[in-house]
Amino acid sequence: MKKVVKFGGSSLASARQFKKVGDIIRADKTRRYVVPSAPGKRNSKDEKVTDMLYACYEAASTGGAYKKILERIKERYQEIIDGLDLNLNLDHEFDTIEQNFVKGIGRDYAASRGEYLNGIVMANYLGYEFIDSAEVIFFDENGNFESELTNKELSERLEHVERAVIPGFYGAKHDGTIKTFSRGGSDVTGSIVARAIHADLYENWTDVSGFLVADPRIVEDPAVIETITYKELRELSYMGAGVLHEDAIFPVRREGIPINIRNTNKPEDKGTLIVESTCRKPHYTITGIAGKKGFCAINIEKAMMNAEVGFGRKVLQVFEKYGISFEHMPSGIDTMTIMVHQSEFEEYEQSVIAGIHRAVEPDSVELEADLALIAVVGRGMKATRGTAGRIFSALAHARVNVKMIDQGSSELNIIIGVKNADFETAIKAIYDIFILAEI
After folding, report:
1. Which residues pair with 261 in a beta bridge?
2. In the chain, fewer beta carbons within 10 Å around the N or the C end?
3. Which residues, in sequence order, are CB contacts of 405 under 8 Å at separation 6+?
4. DSSP secondary-structure letter at 433?
């Protein structure tokens, strides 16, 4: 069995955290490939090493005073090295970094050094082989990730390496120029390594015990999601839930490798398992609740709309002309509603209304602003009668007026539109009826 383990910045912020990580890795012999992030914040007032590197680079590359910032970065790493009692000297690495910063080698190079240096420290601490990501993760000359080439080269490189540390967040173009991942960061690297070695599991260790059913800023101490499918995750992340970026999921999803989100500070917690599909019955009818504020609805009314071929296309072409994407489009026999981001729409609202009048000659066009969309997501909803009824009964009891309802044919999610002012109340009401009541 082979596992890839990725540790986030908060998990590696200090020597104390490093020791926790070491204990986790050594507790399971199958945790053979490690992907570290750069050291994160040790406390709320602290700075991330990556932010310090950016600041140092900006100063050094423009002829400014950078020495003090560089010294602070060196101190962060030395503190970790000393705390772990390692016989390791990074002076040569820092000399190279300083020279490249002064030359103005690039912001991606600067940002990547946090992971690079932490990878060296981690490999030294564990006694694992260090593999520089620049040697095995490739981008083309336009900065696009070369998935298949990387998979081939990385598979060959790791085939005869029993245990290795591969820093997250970056790779290189064919001319050696360092390139970072724009989204997903070290999570993407972990996923790429898992695919390359045909891992049985990709463990992503962070500072939370998995994904939560609802936003903890809205619901107090929400339940943890035990198992979630990729489809459910996609729905929740699309609606604003703070979950893994899609770029970080794709390499393992195509190979059917599950991801386990775990908590470095509570390794006994099972966390959340992300899978392609599962026979496991969910603990609750719903898997999660997520949502976003700041939408507006354009309500179009016209008699006999349903008999007019091409009506929807003509309306949507008006939005396309002004570069406005729509989120949802519920409709009736003589009505059609387009939900869009209010911030995108406001600048063009009068032009869009005029365009709709010219395109389809509606009886009326009305706008409703300051709306929020809430997604109630769960594979368990398909097999449970009365799910929608429970949602609307809970909202009615909480005195929340529902402005829109949209349910896909997959029965995986129900989207509800409410006023911005009712957003938090609505999420609490839905959470209470499905999680706390457990009817």
Report:
1. 204, 272
2. C
3. 330, 388, 414, 415, 416, 417
4. I
Report the interhelical angle of 91-103 vs 49-61 (nearest 10°): 50
Cβ-count burial of 180 within 10 angstroms (0-12 exposed, 13-18 middle, 19+ buried)? buried
Q: What is the token pair recorded at 421? A: 């002012």
Which amino acid is located at 423 in the chain?
F
d(CA 228, CA 230): 7
Question: Residues 6 or more apart from 317 whose CB is under 8 A from it?
Answer: 359
Q: In sequence order, which residues have a C-beta less than 8 Å from that of residue 307 and are 6 or more positions away?
A: none
Angstrom distance (rounded) from CA 15 to CA 188: 25
**CB distance 259 to 249 below 8 Å:** yes
Instruction: Print burial letters for 70-97: b (CB count within 10 Å at least 16), e (below 16).
Output: beebbebbeebbeebeeebebeeebeeb
CA-CA distance, 72 to 266, in Å (whole number)? 30
Dihedral Cα 393, 398, 400, 401, nearest 10 deg? 40
Whole-angstrom distance, CA of residue 250 vs CA of residue 232: 14
The predicted-structure confidence for 45-84, as pLDDT tens digits, reads as follows: 999 999 999 999 999 999 999 999 999 999 999 999 999 9
Quote the CA–CA distance of 385 and 82 in Å, as a whole number. Answer: 60
Alpha-carbon gap, residue 196 to 153, rounded angstroms: 9
pLDDT digits (tens, 9 = 90+) for 260-290: 999 999 999 999 999 988 887 778 888 999 9
Vertex 143: Cα angle to 142 and 147 (nearest 5): 115
Residue in this structure with the two tokens 């809430």, named with its chain if needed = 374
Size of the chain in residues: 439
E-strand ranges in 125-267 read: 129-130, 138-139, 164-165, 170-173, 178-180, 201-206, 227-229, 259-263
Q: Which residues touch 347 (CB under 8 Å, ≥6 apart)?
A: none
Whole-angstrom distance, CA of residue 32 vs CA of residue 49:
26
pTM (2 d.p.): 0.85
CA-CA distance, 32 to 292, in Å (whole number)?
A: 39
* Cα–Cα distance, 275 to 328 (Å, whole number): 27
Under DSSP, the state recorded for 135 is G
> Helix, strand, or coil here: 21?
helix
Structure tokens at 281: 């019955």
